[in-house]
Please model this.
Amino acid sequence: MKTLLESLGSIARQAGDGLVLRPRSERELASALMVLRDRQLALGEGVTLDRGGFDRLGRLDDRSMTIDVGAGVPVRELETRINLQRLTLGALAPAAWDATVGSLVEDPSLGFRVIVPGRLEPLAVRVTGVLPDGAVVTSSPGPRHAVGPDLASLLIGGGGVLGLVTSATLRLMPLPQDEQRRLYSFASHADALEALRESLSAGASFARVVVRGRAGRIIVEVTVRGSAGQVERELALIGRCAESTSGRFEGQGREAEVDGAAHEVTWSDVASALAQGASVELFRVSLSTVIARGVGVRTFVPPSPLMRSLKDVFDRARVLGRLP
Amino acid sequence: MTDHRRLEQATSTCSYCPKACRFSCPVSEATQNESLSAWGKMSAAHHVVAEKKPIDVEVSAAVHACTGCGRCTSFCKHENDVGPTLFAARGEAVKAGLQPRGAASTLATFHQAQNPFGRELGSLVASWRAQRPVRYPLFPGCSTLVKRPGLLEQTIAVSDAFGAPMGVAKSASKCCGYPLYAAGSFDAFAAHAKSVAEAFVETPEVAVLDAGCAFTFRKLYPEFGVRLPTRIRTVIEVLHENLPHAPERKPLPQRVGYHDACHLGRGLGLYDEPRALLARAVITIVEAPSVRREGGCAGGGGLLPRTMVETSVEMARRQALEISDDANVTMVTGCPTSTRMFERAGRRAMDLISVLEQWVTQP
Amino acid sequence: MTIAPLAGNALPPPRAGVLDAQAALAAIVQGRLSTKQLDRVSYSRDMWPLAMVWLRQGRVPPPPDAVIWPGTDDEVAKVIRLARERRLAVIPFGAGSGVCGGTVALHGGLSLDLKRFDGIGQIDPTRRCVDVGAGVMGETLERRLEARGWTLGHFPSSIAMSTVGGWLAARSAGQLSTRYGKIEDMVLSVRGVLGTGERFETPERPFDGPDLSQLLIGSEGTLCAFTGVRLRVHPRAEARVFRAFDVPSVERGLELIRRVLREGLRPAVVRLYDPFDTVLVGRQKPASAHRSPSRRSGFEATVLPGLLKTLASQTLGRPKLLNPLAQLAKKSRLVFMFEGEAKHADAEDRAAAAACLSMGGHDLGEGPAREWFHKRYDVNFRLPRLMESGTFVDTMEVSASWDVVQDVYERVRAAASSYALVLCHFSHAYAEGCSLYFSFVGSAPSEEAIEERYQALWRSALSAATSAGANVSHHHGIGLLKARAYQDSLGEGRHALATLKRLFDPDGIMNPGKLGL
Model:
């Protein structure tokens, strides 16, 4: 009988006690997964996956503002490359820049951007990946669809537990021409957060927000990016929304960053943290959730029964690892 | 009455329509049944009208599942006459002897007593005959005469306070005949309308309390070629005209919900007059998201309270909820039938006249 | 697609399996079950235009054996579990406004009417959301929200005749989607019952895994029945600003939309009508010109329909002669509406106008755009007269990225123009592409020929769209009509779909035949 390494052929190499898989195509990844499954092995248990082989920087479609890119491409490298074309991935949370395209798209929190009015949409407009049974899935073309259940959701934001992203078509936006900061003070946390949500609903977007208490007032620093016209319009809008909830313009200063890890939280989590005197720094600010620093530690939420069922049926052999 | 070809046009229009008024039919909202949407009922009628299939019990039930509220027509760009068309199709059910029980019994009672309650109205009217001069002869409608003498009393009190004294007209012993129309007995309705016209000969003007009766006189009679020699106005119109003479009183510290009764609103176009009266009498009026021409229905018309008892009450319950989900808010309408429907649905309800009476008689 | 319509006056009786289970089913729902012929016919079709052609022929699609009205999640679960035991098909039903045959009871069974789930909860002003029952009619919901100062922002043409559950089942889009998104963008979580009979409620963000709602939304009743949803709401717009332009060509119009969105502007509405559609839009009759059908003159009621039928057959029956006329018209109409906070909407309108003028757009002011808004649902009311005239009418909506939109437009036009008059408008615009909405109006010498032409049209048009890089549907869904094209488009993804089906509906009882499942 062949050894594991022999079965995997050129896809695998030994690294210390374990194996590293480095497939270069969906077919290679599919066959590697089948080998692991046959031997009742799983990724993460002595076998790690290196998606560096999916390193294609494909066509940049300037008209549609999208780029086809392999899962192994580092996000920071991608950003540098597309900046040359005056495009950007936009205002992502800090951790996104250290990810690869695959891990970014699969991340339940980071792989999403905010569009007007305060809505979240996946960074990937289209995705290709491999399911544990070896099927190669490519999602529907077009910016939105009505073609059945969204199979891309097995991959996008899925944390790699139902399938593995191998490439994606990512949404881009024009490189901002302008960036402006504004400080406002509010009578209460509730007013400050309501002004932010009101601004989002009305059509503003924030690259970054810092909220902290000082001398009886709540100080909010907002950062807005975009074309010159867009920044001007949105700052005016934010100003009006702030005024309608006790907000007072306080100039253009810069608040210091908040320490700690950033994770996705609800507005109610942010309000609780502020009520306890914390300062918070917010990224990817949507009406739904924000990615925040300064809002405690992330609480563990056990997978839902639906998620367990999906894992059971798509990855019965747990070749992609176990659920937490 | 429209001829067969025109009925066919009406039913065909709905059959090929993608249910463009779907949400608007209060009967289908209460029953949640596609067959009882305007589309469903007209499609059912289409088989009978256009394809000349014999009517059966199911189609008969469907064409009877309409209060004639006209809400669907308000949302139809063709202004298709759904209610009148379905009522016309009820004629086929009468001919085939396939009426729902409530409609058949109403007809039987009417034929016996000339009103749907089987009561002798002449003596009731006689007991109300005024011993004093009145400015406006009053036509309360048989439902108020039989079931709500208190409302009649209040109407007279309010009219006095407005300097527009009313007294029950002699001709009030006649039912307007609406139940005959709603039951699809059109020949009998036309004959009845003629007899009412004769009884009205010596009544140049009348104030009608029940919006359904006023609608029947003003809108249905002419459709059947009968023109009354009488100026027909609702009590609400008369009171509104005399509002400048109403006593100076503070509005009552009440929060009430106003419902546009279908015959009063869509039927007669009276939206502002009742609101103007109510606005003088109470501090706060709440209304449903859809009002006036687009307002909902309390389920009282088209014989529905007799043919689909539970559905008609459910309609009133839902309409009250649309107006306010606060059980303490009293429903106010300008139609005694609607008021009764809200009460049957377990909600506090008052006729607009009753509110005005409280207002004018407060210390 | 294999479907055999039946003569409308000779329906077979309900299947024995349903009759056997009738008492037990009725007991679950307090008697709210019907096997009446009228109800079976009413639930036999949605608004699939082919079914309307059949209606004209006196035929109906296969009807369900019974209609059942559960009122709680528990009742739905019990009905589905019993249906599993007895192997009865279950077809979730909202208000039947779909246009792809998505509720046709191919194998009979139970039409599961969900309109008793008609609750609208209190609006949470902080979280900006509301819980809504799947059976709530769209127009009812929006009116209730607006009365309280909020909006869902979802305005499909079907808003008057569709339910929230139907929106979820078919991934509905509204006319203001460029700002508010499609229904799947508005969902925080969904609730319902799977084909296993198990109840579910999807979690809300933050997730630790994929967005499970998205794996169920769009399933068209093949995986589950939705009973409720938590939806995002927005403050009702303070102002709406309208403006229309004539642009020299479709190509220029598309480029304009693309640039406006690239600039970061988010109109609530942006629509571009191709030259043919522009001519028709510009000639819309005012609503008041309609005459109540029962009050038409003798000429209108008796002579005119025959004339229209002949005229339709002579013109629409010869689309190869008709479609080239489009070459004579060049101008395309572009309609914008911005809404929201008044000053911001004004500022966005000015910025969009500047972009349009700089690219050769001719500013028509607000009039035509307001006119569009005023008549935005009127197209529904045109159908009866067209159907009575012996034609077929249908619409095909696909979406594509900006780089291929023009190509999709041209190829579909070319492919469809042998079968029907072809109009197109572009709406539901996104930063990376937009939806193309084709309208087809056709005729043929006989009803049989009409059906053949209809089928050939769809095969040809869908094939042209997908080969040019579009998807199969942007917001009407798949149903029966596009099942084959959909399955073909999935590639190996069809295994994933089959796996979902196996997991959520192991006995295959949920809306069998739809989505090709």
Notes: Chain A touches chain C through 82 residues (CB under 8 Å).
